[in-house]
């Protein structure tokens, strides 16, 4: 089978890489993305490996890159995407890259530090200018105000030397943040007991903060005091509040001269700051040009060294030994890449396959179309190595089962057009670069949505529903005129009977089945819902039994591929007999009744449900006639046959494995000689018929072990217990799973009824509100807008999500558990694809 129907064959390959060419070989393998490295140093800590020093240097470079990137973002710039595919640089270039990056980072730090220092200095000058500008005329008047007239604190008896001999008024001027001004003023008054005069004013223009770059308003203050002790207290308090304190001259002319000098210094600082910012923009431009390619190269280099740390060193220390998983079809490309990468070293790298007892990883290649369907399967569990892949069948069955529950031509067409728009725009860069999580979810499943919408249009034509309205594409198979002509309906009869019955047994009333789908005349019938319920319920049972039987049949391919032919007779055949003997017979009764019962005998047709109940009770109902001769004998035979398969399914495989285990153990004891035992074991490792070409035992009972380990670990009780669980799960699951498929009927009915209610409650009311053309046009605009919004929100999004989840459950639980274990793990190749992105 192809890789889509079954995982590709994967081989374990041992690589001998010369020390001089190991880096280039691994780098080339990362560009190709063909192999997955196995860690041969799992017992060695990350700090004791061979290339840990190189990994640390790369990590230090990444820290420097992070600093440069933050500086670029701080400046409001964006980093361009690297152009082309950049190879991993050779190891000798790492020192050059580190020196160049460190030099650029240090230059950027110096320039940024100088810019911040200049901004702080300019900010201090502006604050000082604001203090001096708002302090004009405050000096002498403040002293005069304190000296004019006695106050309540002026002593009555003056000192002998005169009242003004030792009095000297001093000033403290500065700026404080506005939210600290009230607390500062209150603390100054309390601490100094009023022996000061403080004036606080807000700056006329906000000043740019040198740290945040945002404009901020400051409060300037001027404090006049006397006494050295008061001055010390004032300075300590201003220091605690982180105030900016500046010298304040008493003479107004001196203050004006100082203000002019500050303004001149500010202009000079602005010129220097402008030159610094221009030089900073030049440095950031170099960072923008250098950083993107260096980031990609260093990430690739780090990935190469991490891969080399997983290799072991040969005893001669002349080469590195690596073990990789590689697809068999990629082995020629692997050998060619190793040969090209090691040609410069003079010694060619060697790659050869080795046997392995471990289960290989699963490799299934996908493309844009199949990726979403494979994702549905992998969400349940990654398949075992070379197990049958359900994804190719899910491409058809998943959209179809969704459409059975979502069948409507109008709704399916809207979903199809939405998905088609995403498919047509999938190569646009803006669409790919969108970061909205909901959009990326829809975009990733665009092909799934496309098929879901297309199948919904198909089932909508079968149901004959378009926004819950029936369409008469073909002429109806029912003739009302023939019924009226032959029944003799009078005016009195028509007046007394609001509902009339069309009798298909009357000649000319039923002309034949509708060419495709449901006849539109059923949309007018009073028993429309009863008819659709019967049809959809039986259709759900038929689809469910067919789907489950197909899953059991797919298990045959697993048994044949893994060499488990005994399971065909002991498991697959009993399972098919049990499933088809009971529920396959139910499908047969439905189809047989559709084909055998005519319109004339429809009134006396037997009930399938009563026949099916009597089948398990081994009884018959006199009032329920058989569908075909000797039906009771057939039903009893099928029940007995289905019950007889349960012991076979329960005991067949465990007894066979127990017998094989004993026979192999006896044969091994009789043939094993004391001498030469090691040679036989070694030969058995390489040539054992129970080992696949990769060296892994493909039979699932071996669980990845050799035959000796398998025989040693064989526990009959565990085998019997496992098979008992499988038997109970399958037999009970056939009943519960068949009932679970009735969700197709329930969800389809719910979707149709919601569509009908939405049409009746919105559009029908809008169409009946106005008979005039103008009134109808005005009314229908908001009515149709509301109908469109509710259709998309309720019927497309909510109902679509509900149908999607139910279809997902039918595939995971009812279908895949018949043949798919999902206990494997993916092949994760060593690739640079993410680094390039």
From TrEMBL:
Family: Belongs to the V-ATPase 116 kDa subunit family.
Keywords: Hydrogen ion transport, Ion transport, Membrane, Transmembrane, Transmembrane helix, Transport
Function of the molecule: Essential component of the vacuolar proton pump (V-ATPase), a multimeric enzyme that catalyzes the translocation of protons across the membranes. Required for assembly and activity of the V-ATPase.
Domain of life: Eukaryota
Main location: membrane
GO cellular component: apical plasma membrane; late endosome; lysosome; nucleus; phagocytic vesicle membrane; secretory granule membrane; vacuolar proton-transporting V-type ATPase, V0 domain
Family matches, as InterPro entries: V-ATPase_116kDa_su, V-type_ATPase_116kDa_su_euka
Any GO BP annotation: autophagosome assembly
Pfam families named in the record: V_ATPase_I
GO MF annotations in UniProt: ATPase binding; proton-transporting ATPase activity, rotational mechanism
Positions of region (Disordered): 669-703
Gene source species: Microcebus murinus
Membrane topology: Multi-pass membrane protein
Name by which UniProt lists this protein: V-type proton ATPase subunit a
Subcellular location as annotated: Membrane
Transmembrane segments: 400-425, 446-463, 510-529, 541-560, 572-592, 599-618, 638-658, 773-798
């Amino acid at each position: 089978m192809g890789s889509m129907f079954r995982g590709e064959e994967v081989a374990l390959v041992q690589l001998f890489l010369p020390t001089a060419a190991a880096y280039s070989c691994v780098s080339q393998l990362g560009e190709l993305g063909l192999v997955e490295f196995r860690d041969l140093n799992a017992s060695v800590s990350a700090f004791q490996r061979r290339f840990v020093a190189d990994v640390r240097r790369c990590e230090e470079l990444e820290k420097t890159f992070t600093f440069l990137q933050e500086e670029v973002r701080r400046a409001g710039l964006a980093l361009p995407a690297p152009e082309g595919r950049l190879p991993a640089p050779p190891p000798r270039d790492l020192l050059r890259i580190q020196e160049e990056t460190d030099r650029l980072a240090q230059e950027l730090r110096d320039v940024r530090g100088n810019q911040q220092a200049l901004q702080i200095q300019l900010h201090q000058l502006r604050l000082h200018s604001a203090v001096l500008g708002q302090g004009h005329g405050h000096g002498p008047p403040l002293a005069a105000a304190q000296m004019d007239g006695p106050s309540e604190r002026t002593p009555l008896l003056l000192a002998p030397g005169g009242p003004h001999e030792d009095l000297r008024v001093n000033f403290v001027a500065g700026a404080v943040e506005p939210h600290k001004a009230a607390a500062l003023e209150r603390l100054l008054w309390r601490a100094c007991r009023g022996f000061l005069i403080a004036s606080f004013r807000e700056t006329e223009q906000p000043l740019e903060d040198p740290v945040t770059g945002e404009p901020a308003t400051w409060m300037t203050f001027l404090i006049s005091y006397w006494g050295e002790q008061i001055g010390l207290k004032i300075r300590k308090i201003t220091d605690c509040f982180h105030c900016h304190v500046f010298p304040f001259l008493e003479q107004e002319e001196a203050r004006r001269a100082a203000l002019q000098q500050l303004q001149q210094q500010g202009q000079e600082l602005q010129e220097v700051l402008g030159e610094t910012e221009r030089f900073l923009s030049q440095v950031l431009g170099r960072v923008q040009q250098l950083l993107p390619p260096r980031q990609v190269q260093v990430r690739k280099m780090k990935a190469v060294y991490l891969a080399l740390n997983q290799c072991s060193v040969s005893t001669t220390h002349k080469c590195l030994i690596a073990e990789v998983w590689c697809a068999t079809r990629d082995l020629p490309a692997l050998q060619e890449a190793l040969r090209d990468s090691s040609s410069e070293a003079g010694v060619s790298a060697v790659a050869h396959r080795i046997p392995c007892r471990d289960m290989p990883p699963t490799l299934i290649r996908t493309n844009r179309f199949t990726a979403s369907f494979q994702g549905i399967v992998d969400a349940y569990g990654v398949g075992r190595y070379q197990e049958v892949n359900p994804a190719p069948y899910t491409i058809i069955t998943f959209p179809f089962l969704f459409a059975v529950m979502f069948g409507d031509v109008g709704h399916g067409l809207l979903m199809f057009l939405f998905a088609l728009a995403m498919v047509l725009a999938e190569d646009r860069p803006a669409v790919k670069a969108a970061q909205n999580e909901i959009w990326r979810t829809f975009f990733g499943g665009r092909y799934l949505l496309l098929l879901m919408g297309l199948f919904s249009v198909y089932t909508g034509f079968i149901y004959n529903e378009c926004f819950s309205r029936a369409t008469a594409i073909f002429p109806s198979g029912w003739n009302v005129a023939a019924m009226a002509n032959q029944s003799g309906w009078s005016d009195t009869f028509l007046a007394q009977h609001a509902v009339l019955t069309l009798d298909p047994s009357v000649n000319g009333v039923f002309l034949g089945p509708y060419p495709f789908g449901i006849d539109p005349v059923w949309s007018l019938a009073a028993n429309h819902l009863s008819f659709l319920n019967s049809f959809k319920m039986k259709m759900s049972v038929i689809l469910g039994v067919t789907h489950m039987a197909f899953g059991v049949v797919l298990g045959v391919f697993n048994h044949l591929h893994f060499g488990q032919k005994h399971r065909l007779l002991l498991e697959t055949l009993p399972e098919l007999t049990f499933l088809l003997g009971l529920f396959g017979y139910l499908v047969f009764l439905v189809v047989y009744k559709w084909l055998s019962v005519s319109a004339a005998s429809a009134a006396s047709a037997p009930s399938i449900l009563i026949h099916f109940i009597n089948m398990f009770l081994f009884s018959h109902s006199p009032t329920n006639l058989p569908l075909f001769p000797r039906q009771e004998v057939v039903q009893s035979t099928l029940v007995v046959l289905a019950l007889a398969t349960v012991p076979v399914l329960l005991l067949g495989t465990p007894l066979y494995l127990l017998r094989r285990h004993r026979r192999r153990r006896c044969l091994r004891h009789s043939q094993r000689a004391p001498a030469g035992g090691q040679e036989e074991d070694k030969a058995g490792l390489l040539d054992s018929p129970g080992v696949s070409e990769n060296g892994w035992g493909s039979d699932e009972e071996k669980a990845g072990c050799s035959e000796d380990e398998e025989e040693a670990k064989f526990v009959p009780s565990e085998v019997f217990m496992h098979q008992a669980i499988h038997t109970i799960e399958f037999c009970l699951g056939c009943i519960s799973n068949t009932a679970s498929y009735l969700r197709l009927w329930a969800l389809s009915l719910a979707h149709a009824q919601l569509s009908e209610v939405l049409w009746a409650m919105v559009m029908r009311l809008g169409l009946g509100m106005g008979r005039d053309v103008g009134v109808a046009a005005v009314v229908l605009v908001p009515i149709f807008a509301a109908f469109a919004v509710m259709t998309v929100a309720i019927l497309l999004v909510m109902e679509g999500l509900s149908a999607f989840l139910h279809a997902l459950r039918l595939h995971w639980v009812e279908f895949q558990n018949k043949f798919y274990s999902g206990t494997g793990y993916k092949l994760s190749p060593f690739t640079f694809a993410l680094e390039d992105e």
